[in-house]
Fold each of these.
Amino acid sequence: MKKQSDWSREYKAVRAVQMAFDLSSDIQRAFRVAAVMQDLTPSDMVRKVLGLSYRKKRIRPRLTVTLHEEDFVALAARYDLSPEDRAAIRERVSEELGGFARTFLPDHGD
Amino acid sequence: MLQPEPLLYEPRKKELNVDTQSLILALGEASHAGRTFNVMPVAGEEPVLQIVVSGAEETPVYLTITDTQILCLVYLFEEREIRSGQLADLHENMLRLSVPMPLSSLGKVDQHYVVYGALTPTSSEAEVMQELVTLADNAIDLLQTFEDFLD
């Protein structure tokens, strides 16, 4: 390739933008994680860090999943059940989610 | 005695380069086409501003200024987010879209696909605002356009 003009200053600028993006992404991720761990919304987490008023406990969101026709078909195959046997499928879903929660947070699984 | 001919146009005054400090002040107070700007300087070796344009909050614009240009950039997605086997088609689409897209072009920085616009450092604050609004809106349009290529 032909030697290009000296764009070293421009490369440096692009690198600076990249670092700024990485930094702000890391900060945002840290706030999301911290907020979840403290049962806060990310914006309340920001307010807490800044010493501003915030809601102490957010309303604990319910963990729900809406299962559609095709989901029952996929889950029936996963659990080797009939897609019509929705009660059994729901029970297996509940067991699997409980198992995940116990593995993920061993102290709070019960 | 010969009189100099009247000038038909005003000679352009020497224009001053925009700097990040003046932009922070100007954008914080301004609105352009009904849009406002939330400016956050990002600490680092070179001054970089993160600017959120109202109505396009999901696509923050990163701005930095060198001697030769004002570079405004929005991160779209990463290479690892592209669906398997779709890379060549996506690149073809990006190259074709890049020319007609107003004021913005597509590019890549490391593993990140970006949309960016560059202005002369002597641009007015209004021109910078126009660029920011257009770029943030273009980024949203592009994310919707490329949705099918991404996981």
Note: The longest helix of chain B spans residues 125-145.
Amino acid sequence: MSLSAKPVQAFALGWRVLLALVGGFAIANLAAIAISQLPGDNKVDGIVAGMMWSFVVYTLVVISVFTVRTAWRATLLVSTLIALLYGLIHLLSVSEAL
Amino acid sequence: MKARFRQSMGWLHTWSGVVFAWILYFIFVTGSLGYFENEIDRWMKPEIVTSNDILDKQAIDLAMAQLGEHADDASQWYVSLPTSRDPYIEISWLQPGDPEKQVRRQWYEKPLEPNTGDITSIRDTSGGEALYRLHYNLHYVPPLVGYILTSLAGMLMLIGLVTGVIIHRKIFAEFFTFRSAKGLRSWLDIHNVFSVLPLPFHLMITYSGVMLLMGVTMSKVIDSQYGEGRQMHRQFYDASQLEEYTTLATEILPAQLNVDTALSDAKQRVTDQAVNFVGVIDRGTDTEHIEIWFETSEGVEFASLLKYRARTERVEVEIATGKAGQAAAVYDLLEHLHEGLFADIYLRWVYFLCGLFGAAMIASGMIIWLKKQTMKEATPPLLISLIARLNRGVLLGLPIAVGCYFLSNRLLPVEMSGRADWEIHVLFAAWVLCCLFCLINRSQNQWLTLLWSAALVYFVIPLVNMLTTHHSIINSLLNADWLMLGFDLSMWLFAVCFGLAATVVSKKDAGSHLAKKEPLVC
């Protein structure tokens, strides 16, 4: 996976960079929101915890995006994580409302 | 699989480091200088009269008289008592804004003359504070853009550190390897030394740095979970930083509550630390109270704050016991580790050196990348050779620029308008000039020229100080003005370091010409 002159490879690499930066940021935000919604009596502190963990999540996502074999799998990974976190946030907000 | 994994991590390590390398280098250098913010400030305000032997009571009487005269309408008053880091009395107050008189709401800080109690008039300077703030506001861009750029740089640095650990399987074995005079190999070894030894520091400083700006970068989380808008964010910040207090009754009657009574009570409760600040907060309102801050060099936690409040029967004292939330407590700890305010002078130097190691790690990483690029082809592409030349200007121009910043404090006319801003302009102008010099000048001796220039600038600083103020090194020694003396001697220490570096580079380059080896630096 080096910088290649071939347009397809260059596109795949650019796509991965975009996935890592933008997708990673989205996942970091969603993870922070999910963590802040975990049951606990100090809501504000939960948000602080979520925001603090978000940078660890961001780093892990970026590394994962560049670890998987193809750009296609990286796309799958990022979209699955986003979907899972959306689901989790929904579940948590439902259980909170109950 | 394993080889491929390491290869892709190597790619990520390279590019996450290279893309923002110059901004990161700037952040590390100016941030490291921030550990000496107060010391730099004292040097840049040579008019300040130091006083270590004044009694707290006397100092407070002088300060209260001045505050009453100049800041009667201010809601917050602070008095900073002489300490080893700031050996002078300083008053500060929050000036309320008044649109009619065109007065801006802002903090004023004024040092006092210990003998007369008058406000010392000092030159208009950016001081140590503006210098250290550069490392997250980047000065010429709007603050928000500065925070986002530094956060992005910090994230890339974090990724660079983690991938760096991944690609170095034998990280500790490699730490003890040094192959001198082997070109690229030597630079790799240097890079490893600067990275591995202070790795815990690098990880701590990078993560906590990104974390400190999380209110800006992760603001969407606050928006969705707490509330939108400036007001709500402010409220969130206050709520998240909530301190827990133990409240005790004191012997003081509400009518007797003033700074003196609070101070003597506080001194009985905390006997082993010196008082650093005294504050009168929310003056003239129901929540008016007095704060007594003790010196923070005793521990990582800022638990040494006492608040005195008048209640109906007695005055009550609130003793901070820590943050209400667990995450907030971790945040607090990391913030203090990042700022190192608790560090004494020795640990402060360790902090400073670790920060410079970080800058050296980034610089050597950049040099390795450039060497690899130039080795690929016989004649490197124009873009690469441009970056290589600019790189010299950026890396060595910054220390020169900081030196010029110090010089400008002594050499710009004292009555010049916008003087404080011009000091910062001088810093950036010097940096840009160094970069231009490297772009225009085509000789191979740029490293040497810049290293000798840096040595010269730092050598001259104490001399200019001697000529323009009465703080010559001899005077500082005689007056036991250790901060002034320490600053001047440190400048000479840097001059010697740059001189030594120049000598090493010139010897190596002379050798490489004879043996037709690659030059030491690219």
Note: DSSP finds 20 helices and eight strands in chain B.
